[in-house]
Write a structure and sequence with these properties.
The complex is a heterotrimer of chains A (206), B (224) and C (180). Helices cover 29% and strands 22% of the residues of chain A. Chain A is α+β, with helices and mostly antiparallel strands and 206 residues long. Among the domains of chain A are: 33 residues, no CATH class; 86 residues, Immunoglobulins (Immunoglobulin-like), CATH 2.60.40.10. In chain A, strand 4 and strand 5 form a beta hairpin. In chain A, helix 1 crosses helix 2. Chain B folds into two domains: 92 residues, no CATH class; 89 residues, no CATH class. The N and C termini of chain B lie far apart (65 Å). With 180 residues, chain C is mainly alpha-helical. Classes of the chains: A alpha+beta (206), B mainly alpha (224), C mainly alpha (180). Chains A and C meet through helix 1, helix 2, helix 3, helix 4 and strand 1 of A and helix 2, helix 3, helix 5, helix 6 and helix 7 of C.
Chain lengths: 206, 224, 180
């Protein structure tokens, strides 16, 4: 296989303008783009497409383990609930709510300050034994913020309270392998030959 | 010579601050790199440039097991980039002195690949206020192959219509959503421009997520 | 659902219990996913199986899609993994071309025939690439993903992906020039 002029790659990667190429290189770019266009020729759906088949599976009851997980997720997700109560009981209910607000806050999760928010870190590492996140929010310490894979599906998660702002970070797999968050849109060179991901933490309750 | 109390405190604090920076590096950064990083931190202090990014870069290099020379080189390069960031603020017409936060914000925007003239435009258009979100919003669009100058125009227009801070990130998010729906980049920008200033906000995280959140440095979770 | 809801809105509805809303996700993305899987696996029928399995898996694990605004990338990742499973089960690098994919213009004229021949040539060249290079080329030039999106789909670093795309381009160009 022959290497081609690197300017062709640069033009196809959008790093230089195609117009800046000499005509013979522009022709090569055109050939490759035409080939790609042929491959990208629309695939009209056959019949009703995949929707009936996929929705049939979606409507089927999930396997038992999955059912329990989904039930737990349902309980964890806010649901709209409508009450109809007699006026006399509404006072009692209001009093109960006031009492409930006096329950210690730590039983309801951390109280967030005005300039704090939530960062959710998720990464897929099916063969990992441990995953941590390290970044400019914790002085790049590798063992202090672990992710968890509670349902053993290879997807590791952590939810962290941080002051609002932008931070650079990477995942550390099995205590030694540094991996950028490929699900993050924002990447920046780390000046050590790799890329850090960037998370922007926004105020949660504003 | 009589010294004002504030100046006395600043003079006393300076070596204390320098010592505390060195303490942060000890044991975490290769010993051979510490004198160089330390002298760069002191240089930054004398030039009224932010020092925290330099310390963070050294800690990062140490955590990633980088050799001392590479850490020193990265910190050296960063000092130059911080100087460039401050020079950009001056060119854009910001009244001195530039705060550490402002210099760091501009440095981060340039690091994300935004051209200097585009960053200058944003700075000039948003005087006397934080520009971090605006710059990240423009950088987010540039990452998705939007022309940076056009992206900056949209964000500046959104700011002129009253959107501020994190809400400017919602503008870039809305544009990217429109691209996902099949619009061209130009169409996506036009759609969102018509929505301004009422671009949708992101949903708040579920209370269950917040309830399960940890602060860094609190009890580490037991493995499953 | 009214209008053209965003992926974030659709995902929120599905997770809120409206499973029928997932139909919108299927309609929105099946064409691109099917095209991608067909180019990876060489057979539209096999590709349909892979994409259907991938979409069902996406439904069952939708809560783990951390950022619904990047649903498209997440779906491509799932389908890319399904394709890898199929290819590893088959145990071959080359992909059989069981059928010629449809060409947009079906009129029986010379230009259309020439396009069909070119397409067969290119598709054959693509099938001869290693799965990694084929995947990289298809994601970049057929599905139009950015390198960062490709990194999210494949789990690979951007420099690695660029190298694969470059090698794929060189291989395709060689085939096109040999048959010019």
């Amino acid at each position: 296989m022959n290497s081609i002029d690197p300017r062709i790659h640069q033009a196809l990667d959008g790093e230089i303008a195609r117009e800046s190429l000499p005509p013979e290189l522009r022709r090569v770019v055109d050939r490759l783009e035409s080939a790609a266009a042929l491959l990208a020729a629309a695939f009209p759906p056959q019949g009703a497409g995949l929707e009936p088949r996929v929705m049939a599976a979606v409507r089927r009851p999930a396997p038992s383990g999955e059912r329990v997980r989904r039930l737990l997720r349902w309980f964890a997700t806010p649901q709209a609930v409508t009450f109809r109560i007699r006026p006399a009981w509404s006072l009692a209910l209001a009093a109960a709510i006031v009492l409930l607000t006096l329950v210690p806050a730590e039983e309801r999760g951390p109280a967030l300050g005005e300039h704090e928010g939530i960062a959710q870190f998720v990464g897929r590492f099916p063969d990992a034994h441990s995953v941590h996140v390290a970044g400019s929010f914790n002085d790049w310490r590798t063992g202090t913020i672990p992710l968890e894979d509670r349902d053993h599906d290879g997807v590791w998660r952590a939810t962290v309270v941080l002051p609002t702002g932008a931070y650079e970070y990477m995942f550390v797999v099995d205590g030694e392998r540094w991996v950028p968050d490929h699900w993050a849109d924002r990447l920046v060179e780390d000046d050590f030959g790799r890329e850090n991901s960037i998370v922007i933490v926004r105020a949660t309750w504003r | 010579m009589a010294l004002r109390p504030g100046l006395i405190l600043a003079l006393l604090a300076s070596p204390l601050a320098a010592q505390s920076e060195r303490d942060r590096l000890e044991g975490r950064v290769p010993a051979a790199a510490i004198p160089t990083v330390d002298s760069l931190v002191q240089l930054a202090t004398r030039e009224d440039l932010p020092t925290e990014p330099l310390v963070q870069k050294a800690l990062e290099g140490g955590a990633k097991h980088q050799p001392a020379g590479r850490i020193a080189a990265a910190a050296q390069a960063m000092l130059g980039q911080l100087r460039d960031a401050r020079a950009l603020l001056v060119r854009a017409g910001d009244a001195p002195p530039a705060t550490a936060a402002e210099v760091t914000t501009i440095y981060a925007a340039l690091k994300r690949g935004l051209p200097g003239p585009v960053v200058e435009r944003i700075v000039a258009a948003l005087p006397q206020e934080p520009r971090g979100s605006a710059l990240h919003a423009v950088a987010d669009l540039a990452t998705h192959h939007f022309e940076p100058d056009s992206a900056a125009t949209l964000i500046i227009d959104a700011a002129r219509q009253g959107l501020r801070g994190e809400r400017l990130l919602d503008v870039s998010t809305a544009v990217l959503h429109e691209v996902q729906r099949g619009h061209s980049r130009a169409e996506a920008v036009a759609v969102v421009r018509r929505q301004l200033p009422n671009v949708p906000s992101p949903p708040k995280p579920a209370r269950a997520s917040v309830a399960g959140a940890r602060r860094p440095g609190t009890t580490t979770l037991a493995p499953p | 659902m009214r209008g053209n809801p965003s992926d974030t809105e659709v995902v929120a509805r599905v997770l809120g219990g409206d499973r029928e809303a997932f139909g919108l996700v299927i309609r929105r993305y099946e064409t691109g996913l099917l095209r991608f899987a067909t180019r990876m696996l060489g057979s539209r029928d096999v590709a349909a199986d892979a994409v259907a399995e991938g979409l069902v898996r996406a439904y069952r694990h939708l809560a783990s899609c951390r950022d619904p605004s990047r649903l498209r990338t997440w779906l491509y990742r799932i389908v890319a993994n399904r394709c890898k499973s199929y290819l590893s089960r088959r145990g071959v690098g080359d992909v059989p071309l069981e059928e010629a994919p449809p060409v947009a213009d079906s009129t029986d004229n010379e230009a259309s025939l020439e396009r069909a021949e070119q397409l067969a040539l290119v598709a054959q060249a693509l099938a001869r690439l290693s799965p990694d290079k084929r995947e990289a080329f298809v994601l970049k030039h057929v599905e139009g993903l950015s390198y960062q999106e490709m990194a999210a789909v494949t789990g690979e670093r951007i420099p690695t992906l660029k190298m694969r795309v470059h090698r794929a381009r060189e291989a395709l160009l060689q085939v096109l020039e040999d048959h010019a």
